[in-house]
Amino acid sequence: MLVLIAGLALFLGVHSVRIVADDWRSAQIARRGPMAWKLGYTVLSVLGFVLIVQGFGLARQTPVVLWATLPGMSHLAALLTLIGFVLLAAAYVPANAIKARLRHPMMLGVKVWAFAHLLANHTLADLLLFGSFLIWAVLAFRAARQRDRRHPPAALASNITATLITVVLGAIAWTAFAFWGHQSLIGVRPLG
């Protein structure tokens, strides 16, 4: 469990700098340059991610069950993760109405993904992993919205074609992951 906790602390810690120390972050980028910042950020993020994967795998070998999962929660989680995948796609497809309206769809997608997994899973490792990501996403979204209020961003253009492409790409990615990727990468078939 310590490996998982260390990975979460490193990965989410790096990703929380804008939440807790945005001015310090800006000063470091100005002092060291954006490439040096990005390199350090990437190295620490990858190391944290590797520790999360290893730690979660180790924790799953001796699960500590915290509660009983209610019937139907895996199906509800599957539906919610579909929404999460669409939100993730919205972060990258230009000119879609989802991003134009929500501004930070990736953070919202992480919230939905983490919440869905908390509904369908019931161990201490699940609570640590998905609960940590849920808390991080809530705080990161809040901080991003506060930055938007201080420095209002320009309006984003959107069109129906880009929005439909976003939904279709999110659905295709979800389908591929739900039916094949999740089993091969995580070892669990989310849809049975």
TrEMBL record:
Note whether Transmembrane helix occurs among the keywords. yes
**Subcellular location(s) per record:** Membrane
Where does the signal sequence lie? none
Question: Record's superkingdom?
Answer: Bacteria
Query: Which keywords fit this entry according to its UniProt record?
Result: Membrane, Transmembrane, Transmembrane helix
Please give, as recorded in its UniProt entry, the membrane topology of this protein. Answer: Multi-pass membrane protein
- In this chain the NnrU domain maps to 3-190
**Spans traversing the lipid bilayer:** 40-59, 66-92, 112-139, 160-180
Protein name from the UniProt record: NnrU family protein
